Amino acid sequence: MIDQAENLRKIIHGNNQFKNEVSKARSARVISITSGKGGVGKSNVAVNLAVQLRKIGKKVVIIDADFGLANIEVILGIVPQYTISDVMNGKKVITDVMTEGPLNIKFISGGSGVQDLIRLNESQLSYFIKNLYLLDKMADFILIDTGAGLTDPVLSFSRAADEIILVTTPEPTSITDAYALVKTLSIQNSKSIPNIKLLVNRVDDEEEGKEIYLKLKQVSKRFLGIEIEELGYIPYDRALVKSVKLQEPVSISFPKSEVSRAFEDVSNKIANIDSVDKTGSGFTSFVKRLMNIFNS
Questions:
Q1: CA distances (Å), 227 to each of 117, 170, 240, in order?
Q2: Greater pLDDT, 65 or 182
Q3: DSSP 3-state assignment of 60?
Q4: Name one Pfam family in it (predicted).
Q5: Lowest-confidence region among 46-50, 193-197, 283-287
Q6: Residue 21 clears pLDDT 50, i.e. is over it
Q7: CA-based R_g, the chain, Å
């Protein structure tokens, strides 16, 4: 694993062609959408934020990094023919493994993910990185739907992203696990914590969401020295349940519903927030950070 990361650093830093390509590339906002536990609606958040961002003209790519599950596929009603693993092994280019979803949203299935990445040889790594650079030119936002919990892939993707949307619900276990995730990230990233924004899902009303946010904000600031930002609140709405059965994002099935309007508000807020560090944003920087994490 160390050898693979070292090879990648040489490829990234030692190739002038790559440097020229990076300097010309647009810098996509890379946002990791994660949670401390499963079952909080993280994948629905990813898909519906993508839909709402497209509605305001943003180009969006969703990467399903919840390896072993296919929640994004189910919500979109899409079965991709290829996965990002097909790019890793050199069989396909990145555009081949992009599945087109509603409103021209691009979706990439993660396949077996990190397990494949650490087995690549130098030439395979070079080919893979060249393909990933293309994403910066193709997207305004890259939303990474991670797995849930404190597993290595979840933590790695979260640490490498420009920003984190941390999804929780009012359930006590969900709140506790969300704090545990923040705490683990603070221990692993003592020098640099990604910007964390809290999104409280399935609230009865805004007051309940604000109460949860303030609790997490206070304990994170007091005990971890971390500032968590308030992103918003998504109400419990039967329209979302119906849309899941239809295998269609609620923002498309029921665009006037309360939950769709909430996703619209949150996406507008995201679109109006400047990236924290413009010099370090983009998918190319994400890949560099991710491989450095593998090597740590």
A1: 33, 20, 31
A2: 182
A3: strand
A4: ParA
A5: 283-287
A6: no
A7: 18
Distance of CA 240 to the CA centre of its chain: 21
Average pLDDT over residues 220-225: 93
Tokens 């994660």 label which residue? 34
pLDDT of amino acid 26: 55
From CA 191, how far away is CA 159, in angstroms rounded? 11
Helix%, strand%, coil% for the chain, nearest 5 = 55, 15, 30
Q: 87 pLDDT exceeds 70?
A: yes
Largest CA distance in the chain: 54
- Which of the four pLDDT bands, split at 50, 70 and 90, describes residue 223? very high
The closest of 230, 207, 247, 225 to 71, measured between CA atoms, is 247
Pairing of strands 98-100, 106-109: antiparallel
At residue 291, the 3 state secondary structure works out as: helix
CA pair distance 188, 182, nearest whole angstrom: 10
Name the residue among 113, 170, 101, 183 with its Cα closest to residue 147: 113
Nearest to 65 by CA among 91, 89, 95, 30: 30
Q: What is the pLDDT of residue 296?
A: 59
To which H or E segment does residue 204 belong? Answer: none
Write down all domains in the chain, each with its CATH number in brackets.
Answer: 2-294 (3.40.50.300)
Q: How many CB atoms lie within 10 A of CB 152?
A: 11
Helix or strand (DSSP H, E) at 198 = strand 195-203
d(CA 257, CA 268): 17
Pairwise CA distance, residues 157 & 135, whole Å: 16
Reduce the DSSP state of residue 223 to 3 states and report it: helix
Closest alpha carbon to 130 in 6, 277, 17? 17
| Per-residue pLDDT, 74 | 85
**Segment among 149-158, 210-219, 283-292 with least mean pLDDT:** 283-292
Residue 164 Cα distances to 25, 159, 207, 231, angstroms? 23, 8, 23, 11
Segment 9-18 mean pLDDT: 49
